[in-house]
Design a protein that fits this description.
Blueprint lengths: L1 H19 L2 H21 L7 H23 L7
Helix pairs in contact: 1-2, 2-3
């Protein structure tokens, strides 16, 4: 289920980016795309062999979400 939801969020983010040309959905979408790759590796039974890679992948994904939220928090926009 996590894999499916991550892919759905990734695709929705790409759609929103294509319509609005805002970086925020693209950044969040990329993060969820990375989470989807991580979940897929687990579903395929690769989590032991790829453990270090998956830790790095998830770390990058979390950092992208943190960056997006900080960027939003520091933006001059009054409404989203």
């Amino acid at each position: 289920m996590n894999f499916i939801l991550c892919v759905a969020i990734f695709l929705l983010a790409l759609y929103v980016y294509s319509k609005k040309k805002l970086a925020m959905p693209l950044i969040v979408g990329i993060a969820f795309g990375l989470f989807a790759i991580s979940h897929l590796a687990v579903l395929l039974g690769l989590e032991v062999a790829w453990e270090t890679f998956l830790i790095a992948l998830r770390t990058v994904a979390y950092l992208l979400v943190i960056y997006a939220l900080l960027r939003l928090a520091l933006s001059p926009y009054s409404k989203i």
